[in-house]
């Protein structure tokens, strides 16, 4: 009897509890009419405001975080065309579920005047016709060749810094690193702007080395400057202002056209078209 009792106690002492599963969910809603906000960004932050995780609201405005570490936290939500909303402090316990409805209001974004000059379809390539069609729709900000010539900039980053919301994270060898003000993490090592040049995603990891991309100038191509991080080059290393026909700037995931969408598109996307696609 004594031996059985000792074995029973040992089994009880070494039985592990089931893993705690805590959830945070809710809906992202339009403050005006209560309708769902689709494709909005909802960020889970620590109580000190540090980024932890991000999800997008679905077609019903629903969002959710599973396996959240218990403790104090906050939520921040927003979408292009809406204000940013932030919750108060929330406390999550083990095996708790918290449901939070976030409401955001429509906002007007005032942009500097941009003149769009149409080119004859017979004189431009199919790629550039797409540029002018998207400029007519006005989903982002657009710089045409006329604007570029008036600016007479030495670097592409100088041109981009004239677009509202584009910020500089400082110089590195070769040129500036840029980010958009709507990015949740900014600066070096944070949330870099995605750059496409003539349909090539030029700052995706390994893309330059894999595709042999060289710096595009108004004349012949020259070798890309060395001494910089090959995985996150500055756009100033890749293309010269004199070679550019048009630039498109999209501040976040909700405004990026499908053909330029990528997992990193929430950080902002810049699409550059060179004059190789335009016959003078």
Keywords:
alpha+beta, 16% helix, 280 residues, 6 helices, 2 domains, disordered N terminus, five-stranded mixed beta sheet, Ferric Hydroxamate Uptake Protein, Chain A, domain 1, five-stranded antiparallel beta sheet, Immunoglobulin-like, elongated
Task: Describe what you observe in this structure.
- The chain is α+β, with helices and mostly antiparallel strands.
- It has two domains: 23-104, Immunoglobulin-like, CATH 2.60.40.1120; 121-277, Ferric Hydroxamate Uptake Protein, Chain A, domain 1 (Beta Complex), CATH 2.170.130.
- It contains six helices and 15 strands.
- Strands 2, 3, 5, 6 and 7 form a five-stranded antiparallel sheet that branches. Strands 9-14-15-12-13 form a five-stranded mixed sheet.
- The longest helix is centred in the N-terminal third of the chain and has 12 residues, at 2-13.
- The chain is elongated and about 60 Å long.
- Residues 1-18, 205-213 and 220-231 have low confidence and may be disordered.
How helical, in percent, are the residues?
10-25%
- CATH homologous superfamily (4th level) name of the largest domain: TonB-dependent receptor, plug domain
Biggest sheet layout: 5 strands, antiparallel
Here the CATH topology of the largest domain equals Ferric Hydroxamate Uptake Protein, Chain A, domain 1
**Count of DSSP E strands?**
15
**Count of spatially separate domains:** 2
In the predicted model, the low-confidence regions spanning at least 5 consecutive residues are: 1-18, 205-213, 220-231
What is the C-level CATH assignment of the largest domain?
Mainly Beta
